[in-house]
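Query form — protein WG repeat-containing protein

QUESTION: What is the three-dimensional structure of this chain?
INPUT:
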Amino acid sequence: MYSYNLYPAGIKTIYGTKWGYINNKGDFIIIPQYQRAREFQANGLAIVEKEDLWGIIDTSGEYVVYPQFEGIMDFSEGRALVIVEGGFKVIDEKGNILTKRAYNYIDPYQNGRALASITNTEGYSSYGYLDLQGQEIIPTIYDMGYPFKNGKAIVKISENKFALINKQGDILYAYNYPMVGNLGNGLLAFQRELGGKYGYIDIKGNEVIPLKYSSAQPFSKGRGIVNISEDVFYNKYGLIDKEGNFIIEPQYNDIYMLGENRAAIGKAKVETEPYMGSKYAIADILTGDILTGFVYNNISPYNRNYASVSNDTMTFFIDTKGLPSYSLPIVKGSGELSFIGDLIKANIDQKLFYLNKEGDIIWHPNYIIPLNDQFQIFEKKHKPNKDYLVYYPQIRGMKNEDTQKEVNNRLKELSKVIPIDNEKQLDYSYTGTFSVEFFKCHLLVLKLEAYNYTFGAAHGMPSQVFPHIDLISGEFYQLEDLFKEDSNYVKVLSDVISYQIENDPDYSYVFPGSFEEISKDQPFYVNEDALYIYFEPYEIGPYVAGFPTFRIPFNEIYEIINTEGDFWQAFNSCK
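ANSWER: The structure tokens for WG repeat-containing protein are given below.
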């Protein structure tokens, strides 16, 4: 439960977005200084990132744990999980590391136990459980495991053998099946053969609901979400009771629980293309009654007896009867509203702001980034379709208005500000934003980021572009503009990158033989002391590597830099 009237808020600066904390009047109490900042938790602690490392602060802004970890997960039962040198460990609320070793993964604590796994040199993972002191109370000997629920957990002992254990690791019941799901309301989903139908057994192993579902989720509030579709392309989700009777008939593209005895049920937006997503209604899980039309793109779980919903144009609250609440804020745009402390947090069109319960805006992010006394960047929004959203930069302060207009038109083009039919159902979603990567003298380097997701795909494709803009001439500099005409910069830079790939273990992910040399117009960006060359996902490394980037200090390639050229002078001659 949130119990502190401090709220994370970020402002855009020439050094990127900086996060701090405001009070319920919108005033900064902890000044923006962090790369990222999470909400204060019930223990009065908040997790923050600074200089690419994570730490923990209290409500006065003092560090309880100085930034030192690669990642920190939220506290659960007085413990948090941290990433250290690629492995997971457990800390207490004072930052003391409790685990003696690092694990490949640790799940958040439940019932005084945390599921943990280790992976051997052959890539095989084994699972066990840690107690609140970070000790292996149950050794990592299982093929898999689920988090504890009500003092019990399901583990896989070996092929075709699962078991229900208590908090000491004692086996209560064993099940000779190839798959047994997590515990829910005393029932377990199971398969008699892999790839076969699902049914449910009780904790003693008695078959309670026959094998007749293509998928089956753990029971909650006396209800189980099941799918009866024989086709992997289409879904037929329904909701059953503990006797296997359908409370909600199996005909929906999606179902998920909302709390307050309510569920979101979804019909495919395009019946022949269910992967395009769903339009949702709210149903009563006790009676099966459908309380609303299928009009919502998003429905959040209930909190304080209200759920946040979004249609194509607005976001607002509805009560447990499915009726809109006109006494709470109604906001233009798509996203989610949620209660936090005394305020309402709005994540709308990928922007965070805060309102009071009357709908007055308490705080919103800045839309103007001052570069200096002359130049500013205005953030503009382009949302021609519910699935297409771009925030793009427009520069103000250039002396020549025609040049400024040309620059801004070019930035709109690079940001993919294009007309899209408002009524058309796209087969993809596109989001874009920007930040200031570097600014000095009259050189502005922007970072334009975007994410294009084709509905139904395993993942989307990110993109990034770094325009290098001379705010005096309006020139957009290219890589070749940095170097002398006869420098053969392609070979020089390629040799440096090849050396880094061969000698720096940080680049061990690069596909063997994938890199030969850069292109003449290779993507790049600069800062005050170095050139950065980068590659697109999949180009020389796996998707998870993101954009492989190579830092080349200017002092290593100074001999080929055109120090008298306009590009170099743009950030090395502040006149």
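ADDITIONAL NOTE: DSSP finds three helices and 47 strands in the chain.
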